[in-house]
Amino acid sequence: LKLKIDNSIETIMPKNDSEYLFYNQIKETYGDNGQFIVMAISAKDLFSPDTLQKLDDLVADLEEYKYFDKKKESSRMERFRLLSSRETVNATELLDYFSDDPPFQRTLKRKIRTLFGDRESLGRRELKKLGKSLHATYELKQLKLIDDIISPLTTKDIKGENDTLESYDLVDSDRDGRRIMPSTQEAIDLFRQRLERNPAFELVLYTRDPETRAITDFGLMIKFINIEDRDPITRDLMEITDTQDSLKIVYTGMPIVYVWAVNFIRLDSIILVPLIMIVIMIVFYLNFRSFRGVWLPILSLGIAESWVLGLMGYLGFHITVMASSIPSLMIAIGSSYSIHILNQYYIDFDMISERGKKEGLLISMTHITLTVLLAGLTTIIAFMTLCTSQLSAVREWGIFCGIGALFAVFISSALIPACLMLLPHRMPVSLRRKKENLGVHLTLVEKALAYCIKFSTHHYRLVVSATAIVAVISITGLIQLKVDTAYVSYFKKDSEIRKNVDIIGQKFGGGWGFDILVDSGKPDGVKSPEFLKAVTEFREWLTAEENADLRIGHTGCFSDIIKTMNMAMDNDRSVSYCIPGCASDICDFIEIYTGEDKDSDGRFDDFEPFVDADYRTCNVLARLCRKEGQLIGTSEVQKIVKKIGEFLTQHLPEGMTYHISGFPVMEVQVSRYLVIGQLQNMLLSLIAVVLICMLLFSHFSAGLLALIPLTVAVLINFGIMGWFNIALDMTTSVIAAVTIGIGIDDTIHFMNSFRHNRARGYSIDESIDRTLNVSGKAIIFTSVALIFGFLVFLLSQFIPLNLLGILLAITMTATTLGALLVLPAFIKITHVNLNPPLKETWMSKYFNLSRWFGLNDVE
Fold first, then answer.
1. Which DSSP helix (H) or strand (E) runs through 783?
2. 524, 530 in Cβ contact below 8 A?
3. How many H helices and E strands in the chain?
4. 673/730 Cα distance (integer angstroms)
5. Which residues contact 112 (CB under 8 A, 6 or more apart)?
6. pLDDT digits over 468-505, tens only?
7. First-last CA distance in the chain
8. Could you give the CA distance from residue 425 to residue 286 in angstroms, rounded to a whole number?
9. 404 contacts 333 by C-beta, under 8 angstroms
10. What is the pTM for the complete model shown?
């Protein structure tokens, strides 16, 4: 119950990354220009008095989160408490009671509509729930999380009069500070004239139809203070915009994207986990044909699941897009241990009957639980190799998957034998009839095992050749593999969030982008005409048609303010909207400007997003525009950053430097860490497999043998990704760890059973036959449980989880074929010896895992 969901970049990036530190430094200096909400607001008649009043109501509701009036808010809550003390309250009566306070009346209307729909009568229970929601909003307002609201009704422009430059509101206010909304045609025309006067307002406060040049939408931007958790405030703001009936509002921005991600994660947890449980139950029943064969494993999995999620909650870790796969993954993985334990119980059923339940179970369960423990240990180690990742989300995913596997091994190894001891010793009728050969035909699984035995013992050269060909084809695909960590690409093309991103991109030039810092090299250097002209040329280059591949839709800069000042001092002549030729003019403009400096840092509040306090560095805000429904992937962002960097290096005057930062750059950093982490993880996992198998079987060749099916399975996965243009992202990056961690279980089960049969004197062919007939069934059913469990991920709202499900199902099929077909074929062709060495060596004496786990005892 303590678990929280968080998908922000702060939960992913390593805190010591130089780019991440610089990104935070920029936010401290210029404000958070990357995490904002952009809205496109349209209506049937945009400049009608009714539409403008509705816009004013919207802005007023948003402003309550920026300007907190404790006395007013406390009075509202007290009045609500007095009225809600009654048994029932009519919703209309409640709204009428606050008719003297329109903003709070609208808040109540939204809350009632969101919580109770069209219900008219509110009882004590509903009033209590409404009160809690109002109190949560009160707490949010008190934090004053909104830094600025940029809209046609709140923006100031600059005018020049009597040798002074003054800022003025586009919409006039009365003595009490309330906006006087245009209600006559004359007032509306004046408002439109003010709006269109300044060229810098286009693509910020409004947008035009490309053909008619008529204003089609008003723009509204909400900027937050530098905080990590924007989810609660964003949800409240979305509630405000979603309940606007007469205004059509489209919004986007990273805070919005994060909220959608959280909603999808919650929906996935409600749908996927029960479905995977049902799939696993069906597989268990098909395998064991008994009630206990279903509820014992499910009980074990349920306990392990609650343990790992509870531990995450107690330790304060958050659920990310990656971590959302942990519950489903743990069920799929944990099922394999239960299958092997119960399968061994039914294999040893007669022995347990002969020796008595207590002694027989002790012998049977000791053997299989030790094997399961060893297999689980390799899985845990494979997951724990992700601890080397620099990305906290990947690192935490690996740690808790490893802990979850440990819990699953421990609980299934302890709980299932204990329950079998308490339950009657009884074999299901279907299995008993099968054992007694009472007219029961070969099952599909048994036929598949027969083919595996035939091919691995008689056509092993063909199997080895086919494996080599598949590996070569996979390597060819691997070379084409791309990396992409663009967050919006996690959503499906027909999702509302993707559509909104496209609309905002077309209308206002994008919902997020770069901070391009140009350093003049000296204090007050930004006030130089040469500097500002160089920056202006750079901005023109960014948005030029020949540089459409840069995908820059809009730029904002300090030069816009200077141009506006120059125009204002020349009686608003449009030809004067340019950089002055004299440095003293720029200094004079800033000197005579009467803007506000609320934080007293030496910069006017209007300047803060664009210049530092020393006027040395200028921040060019460049928004990425996703056009024609095409997302901008990480590789494309890298090309954009490279091209911008090359231009600045060649064209900036001597002494000037630059640094490109922003949210897209953080995504590029994430992709770089993914590639490095993937290589480290695969190398460490494969080394761990070699060492464990070498120590377990006291032969170096055993470690190399175990590598073959696992390496081929990993290559197949990356080969498919490369051939089918599936990018390596945050979620798909863990497939190698899962493949090796789970695949090694089947490999160890096969190799250990094969060694036991060889030790009993059977030939290689006979040992393969007996091993596949005994362990093969458990391996197949384990794999079936995993494959169909992973395929449930196809129902997820996230594209990476859909792809993760498909790829894991394919790799599980590959690891199963590797254990049942490829591994015995390579044993047959190499005649590898897995028996303990005749002469004791230092390794077999001190590092013999078989002895530690009691696996040397053939009986």
1. helix 764-791
2. no
3. 30, 15
4. 10
5. 91, 94, 119, 122, 130
6. 999 999 999 999 988 877 778 788 888 888 889 888 98
7. 48
8. 20
9. yes
10. 0.82
